[in-house]
Automatic annotation (TrEMBL):
Xref: SUPFAM superfamilies: FAS1 domain
GO cellular component: extracellular space
Pfam families associated with the record: Fasciclin
InterPro entries reported for this sequence: Adhesion/Biosynth-related, FAS1_dom_sf, FAS1_domain
Highest taxon above the source species: Bacteria
High-level lineage: Bacteria, Pseudomonadati, Pseudomonadota, Alphaproteobacteria, Rhodobacterales
Ranges of residues in domain FAS1: 37-181
Identification of the protein by name: Fasciclin domain-containing protein
Leader sequence residues: 1-23
Record keywords: Signal
Organism listed in the record: Paracoccus sediminis
Amino acid sequence: MMTISKALAAGCLVLASVGAGMAQDNPMVGGAAMMADRNIVENAANSADHTTLVAAVQAAGLAETLQGAGPFTVFAPVNAAFEALPPGTVDTLLKPENKDMLTKILTCHVVGTNAMSDAIATMIADEGGSHVVETLGGCKLTAQASGDTITLTDENGTMATVTIADVRQSNGVIHVIDKVLLPKS
């Protein structure tokens, strides 16, 4: 009986250390641990800083896609980024009749690859200081770097800063940004 108890205790320790290791390599986002074995939607739903983004993803019908195999790179605006839009914008976009526009805006934050910040920085350097990123929504974002800081500028001139990079997901990566990027107007 003692051997079974010791084996069970050892197994629990191994499982606990594996689980802790999966979150340990990832930064905290919105007060929550981001688990590398969970998908983009599961992790974003746990972030207190991304409740508006999650509501928008659900309203646009993109949750199933972003729970899929990917790989995806999501530039994830925080709640404050949505709050900085003109008054009433978010409420208007969340209405069913505006689903197409909401989908376009959200997919302008998604790239169909797993792009970690070091790979983005290398592309920027290799291309002389800026790299154009084509999103799944057809938007062209210009990535630039200054030291360790990466910025993305949309086709309207809005610049977002990556505030938390390399949040690993089971189906890609999230980079937290401080602005909502919009399709060309």
